[in-house]
Amino acid sequence: MKGVIKRARKEPTDDILAAIDVGTNAVRLELARLLPDGSLETLHQERDPVRPGEGLFKTGIIRREVADRLLSTLRRYSALCRRYDARVKAVATSAVREAKNRDEIVRRAKREAQLTLDVISGREEARLICLGVLHGTPPLKRSICIDIGGGSTEVAFAYGEHPKDLWSVTLGAVRLTEVFGISGKVSKKQLKLMRRFAREAVEESLPKKIPRGPTTALGSSGTIQAVVGFARHEGGGYATTEEISSAAQELAAMDMPKRRKSFDPRRADIVVAGAVILEAVLEHLGLDAITAVDRGLRDGLLRDMVRRRKIDHTDGSLHEAAVAVGRRFGFGERHSEQVTRLAMSLFDDLAPLHQLPASARPWLEVAALLHDVGNAINYQRHHKHSQYLIQNADLPGLADRERMVIGCIARFHRRSAPTLTHEGMVGLTAQEARVVRKCATLLRVADSLDRSHRQPIKKLTASLKGSKVVVRLSSRTPIDLELWDAEHELPLFREVFGRSLVLQQGR
């Protein structure tokens, strides 16, 4: 009998990227090839009007039949991504973000579709949209980006392609449609109430005026494209605020059959609400007009994946954001920076030992910078307060799930050891728990090596020597306190990494 030759499973390639966007109104997939010049060549696109947010804003949950619809689409998308051997980034926005059963949806995506579904915040959504819309924009050009989704509306103010301010309004076209039960013609009284509702939501979340902002915005969503195209009548991609206001009134006066002659049936259901929201945002910000663009969240996801694969140790955007959070809570900056330098040296030098993915490095970096930030609340339990503050911090570029992992790494920098069965690991996948366990152990060693908070160690180098890990320390002053404290971490280091840790003080 001939033996069966098993085909080795292919690893995702860096040149084929896939972005999956689970929105409130639809689910989208884009597959692209990264070309040598840094541009992206689209290979495949799909959009399915699954409407994950259907009924959500009344019940608070994604119903079983809707979830089944969503998972069926995600299984198909996942199969396509595997066929292309693509590196995948899948995110969920407002609908899943607000659903009481969001954790169940995320678990099903992992189990049934083999997809890690990151539930991102509104501000992170705004950042990614901004990145997608403004890629390649000249550095000094000022832009305002608006995106109206099914459950929320995102606004970004940027210089070049880099966002300066990000906002998220908890109001989207599907949400407003469901709140007012729109199914046909909208009476003048109902339209007046919708406009007031939208204005109040916008006023609560957006500044009255953006200083030095442009007078024309860029609109990136399908809803905005539909409204702007209708407002111009001849289908142009540019409309004034007055034209948008007139369009809202004209659309409201239409019955549903007439709307469906002008729009895709699923878009026709929510286009009145979309026009009302767009009118409210433009008027509140004092903008004269809006230009519709055919780029958005998926493009931002792809660009972010490219940026992350090219990121090197000198990239300071996330570092600076973490320092800004620390300063807000009056952290010990010199100690935190020292612990971070030591932790990064351990991570880089011991890569063959810990075998963690490159994506774990910035997680450890942020955790090291903010490990003591909880002191602002209470010293005795500051590790737990640090975890909470990190998981709720404004750290652009990090998904909710990433902040969860970073918070856990910071939590275990003291007191209880990061065992896989500890209650603090609840909610983490097995892979995430292993990352926390290894990174937290490195952080504990780094933290102990600045126990005096006086930064006596100038340099740290680590190397593998047989069954041992030798760490050589170059110091400017005696480090007796640091060596004494580090000894307490030796048993945990051996347990986690399977090797003894030897500390050697050099000149």
Alpha-carbon Rg, integer: 26 Å
CATH superfamily assignment of the largest domain? Hypothetical protein af1432
Give the overall shape, derived from the CA principal axes. elongated
Rounded average pLDDT: 90
Low-confidence stretches: 1-9
**In which range does the helix fraction lie?**
40-55%
Please work out how many helical segments DSSP would assign. 22
How much of the polypeptide forms β-strand, as a percent range? Answer: 15-25%
The computed structural class is: alpha/beta
Strand order of the largest sheet: 8-7-6-9-11-10
End-to-end distance: 67 Å
Number of strands: 14
* CATH topology label of the largest domain: Hypothetical protein af1432
Query: Major sheet, described briefly?
Result: 6 strands, mixed
CATH architecture of the largest domain: Orthogonal Bundle
Q: Supply the CATH class of the largest domain.
A: Mainly Alpha
Query: How many structural domains does the protein architecture include?
Result: 3
Task: Please describe what this structure looks like.
The protein has 507 residues and is α/β, with parallel strands linked by helices. It folds into three domains: 16-120, 2-Layer Sandwich (Nucleotidyltransferase, domain 5); 123-298, Nucleotidyltransferase, domain 5 (2-Layer Sandwich), CATH 3.30.420; 311-506, Hypothetical protein af1432 (Orthogonal Bundle), CATH 1.10.3210. It has 22 helices and 14 strands. The protein has helices at 56-59, 64-83, 94-98, 102-113, 122-134, 173-180, 188-205, 222-232, 241-252, 256-262, 265-268, 271-284, 297-310, 317-328, 333-349, 351-354, 360-369, 382-391, 400-411, 430-448, 480-486, 490-497, and strands at residues 16-22, 27-34, 40-48, 87-92, 117-119, 142-148, 153-159, 162-169, 216-219, 238-240, 289-292, 457-465, 468-475, 500-506. It has a six-stranded mixed β-sheet, with helices on both faces. Strands 3-2-1-4-5 form a five-stranded mixed β-sheet, with helices on both faces. Strands 12-13-14 form a three-stranded mixed β-sheet, with helices on one face. Helix 2 runs parallel beside helix 4 (102-113), helix 5 crosses helix 13 (297-310) and helix 9 runs antiparallel to helix 12 (271-284). The chain is elongated and about 80 Å long. The N and C termini lie far apart (67 Å). Residues 1-9 have low confidence and may be disordered.
